[in-house]
Amino acid sequence: MPSKPKRPCSYPRCPNLTTERYCEQHKKQAAKRYDQERGTAAQRGYGPRWRKVRMMFLRQHPLCVECQKAGRLTPATVVDHIIPHKGDMVLFWDESNWQALCKPCHDRKTAKEDGGFGR
Question: Is there a contact between 46 and 36 (Cβ–Cβ < 8 Å)?
Answer without folding.
Answer: no
